[in-house]
Amino acid sequence: MKGAGLPGPCNFMHKFNPANAHNLDNPQRREHEQPDTILLAAGIRQDMVVVDVGCGTGFYALPAAALTGKDSAVYAVDISEAMLKILKQEIEKRGIRNVYPVKSEETNIPLGDGIANMVISVNMLHEANDRESFIKELKRLMKPDGRLVLIDHRKEPTPSGPPIEERISYDDTFSLLKRYFEVVVKGPSGEYQYGLIAMK
């Protein structure tokens, strides 16, 4: 049922249009969503392996690469080749050596089990056609002591973001994560979002 916030298959969900990629990294977004601050509050540190699922043009992946250091690995995963092309150009321009773009399917990410100290998923859960399968795939990527940092749009009117009926509420997201993780706590987020941190 459309807009019900259900965790199962949601085939009505839209996908972000790559033609609007310029909206993913602009001064207005940085005013209310500061990736460096959010990542530090979420516990990112030197030498972590990080997987950013739904990386877009690198709004979180690029800061993660700087915060984890040159000996780390940040896998920037997206289903959009157009987004990854923009990210690759930015990586080349900046001379970044620890970000690895990965073309993916929504629930079939071509990375090994248990590789990540931290998995990041920002504004992606509401787009997932099958939310349970999506969460299980994120969990598969995590080390036993890894953490999932999940951020999405609040289910209320905000200056930007998808239609409210396509969003999933904090409570529904919390309930979904509790089915798959031992620990689920409130996490950092931007002004118009909510954040959760989940651990096995």
Task: Please explain how this structure is put together.
The protein has 200 residues and is an alpha/beta fold. The protein has one domain: Vaccinia Virus protein VP39 (Rossmann fold). Helices cover 28% and strands 24% of the residues. A 7-stranded mixed β-sheet has the order 3-2-1-4-5-7-6, with helices on both faces. Strand 1 (49-53), helix 3 (61-68) and strand 2 form a beta-alpha-beta unit. It is globular, with a radius of gyration of 15 Å. The two termini are 30 Å apart. Mean pLDDT is 89; it is low at 1-13.
> What is the domain total for the residues?
1
**Can you tell me the residue ranges where pLDDT is under 50 for at least 5 consecutive residues?**
1-13
Beta-strand share of residues: 15-25%
Adjacency order of strands in the biggest sheet: 3-2-1-4-5-7-6
CATH superfamily: Vaccinia Virus protein VP39
* String of helices and strands: HHEHEHEEHEHEE
CATH C-level class: Alpha Beta
How many helices in DSSP terms? 6
Q: Determine the structural class based on helices, strands and strand pairing.
A: alpha/beta
